[in-house]
Amino acid sequence: MSERFVLRWVDVVDVILVAFLLYKTYKMLNGTTAIKVFVGLITFIFVWWVVTAVFQMQLLGAFLDQIVNVGAIALIILFQEEIRQWLTMLGSKQNFVMRFLTRIFSSKSTALEDSDVMQIVVACKNMARGKIGALIVLKNEKDLKGIEVTGEQIDASINSRLIENIFFKNSPLHDGAMIISKDRIVAAGCILPVSHSFNIPKSLGLRHRAALGMSERSDAMCVIISEETGRISVSKNGELKLDISPEELEKELSTYSE
Question: Which residues contact 147 (CB under 8 A, 6 or more apart)?
Answer without folding.
Answer: 85, 137, 177, 179, 187, 190, 191, 192, 214
